[in-house]
Amino acid sequence: MKLGVSTYSLLPTIRSGEMSALDCIQWIADNGGEHVEIVPFGFTLSDNPALVDAIREKAAAVGIDVSNYAILADFLKPDQEAYEAEIARVQREVDVAHRLGVKYMRHDVAAYRRPLEQNSIIDFERELPRMVEACRRIADYAAQYGITTTVENHGFFVNGSDRIIRLIHAVDRPNYRMTLDTGNFWCMDEDPVVGTKKTIEYAVMIHLKDFYYRKARSFSGEGELFRCDSGTWFKTYTGNLLRGAIVGDGDIDLWESLGTIKRSGYDGYISIEFEGKEECKAGTRIGLENARRMWEAL
């Protein structure tokens, strides 16, 4: 197992100009991370091959892996032309992943901010054929590079263990698997430990995330949909409340989740994903330390 950090955890420093993508890689190495997961928020790679090369070379210079490339995508477009354009765009991002030297790439399937009233299981089953076709075509394209593409349990539509398992089996490609996020099951009000236990066999990448969880009645009037990165309370699928926490400090039973991961024989990358209220470098560093301590004690 290699424990590292997603650049998403350090996004506030990137947006403020305090740190560049290359600075983040140096910081991760300096703080004991063994890999960096590249999430191109605050910078772009699709039209910047020089930065792609610089990231790959910087990681090699400081002695850590570039583990995964994670991008947004939405295949539920209003017409066929837009659908084809999105598939073509994501295939170009696969080319970026290859240039980065990664063997894993996460792409979303539907928009995170898809209207909540369109996120039912009925909607999911209706849209499944289009999602399956897009994911197959991208996985087939990635196969030429030896890249495994993944779906993450992310947002309010392609999330929840049963939906994830349904999609992976429908796509039916050996190089289409899962980025398992230990926290995001709670977005769908599914116990994160249960979700982890049900899906760990499909995981080739782990996001280690923690949340504070409150029933809606505890914070009447609080919470906003789709603001998981703001450090404030946001709403789950049924209106309960989550707020990002330092890994190990929140309400998820990460001892049990990590125990499930370790007992499964998983020996890949685990990436800290911090989106809490605390200063991001401190929150990420403490989470990294907590995760290593828990893993070694299990």
Walkthrough of the structure:
By secondary structure, the protein is an alpha/beta fold. It has a single domain (2-211, 251-297), classed as Divalent-metal-dependent TIM barrel enzymes (TIM Barrel, Alpha-Beta Barrel), CATH 3.20.20. The protein is 41% helix and 18% strand. It contains 9 helices and 11 strands. The chain has helices at residues 11-16, 21-30, 49-62, 80-100, 121-143, 161-171, 192-199, 254-263, 280-297, and strands spanning 2-6, 35-38, 65-71, 104-107, 148-152, 176-181, 203-208, 210-214, 234-235, 241-245, 269-272. It has an 8-stranded parallel beta barrel, surrounded by 6 helices. The protein is globular. It starts with a strand and ends with a helix. 45% of the residues are buried.
Key structural traits:
eight-stranded parallel beta barrel; 298 residues; single chain; TIM Barrel; alpha/beta
Sequence-ordered SSE layout with sheet pairings:
Elements: E1 2-6, H1 11-16, H2 21-30, E2 35-38, H3 49-62, E3 65-71, H4 80-100, E4 104-107, H5 121-143, E5 148-152, H6 161-171, E6 176-181, H7 192-199, E7 203-208, E8 210-214, E9 234-235, E10 241-245, H8 254-263, E11 269-272, H9 280-297
Parallel strand pairs: 1-2, 1-11, 2-3, 3-4, 4-5, 5-6, 6-7, 7-11
Antiparallel strand pairs: 8-10, 9-10
Helix pairs in contact: 2-3, 4-5, 5-6, 6-7, 7-8
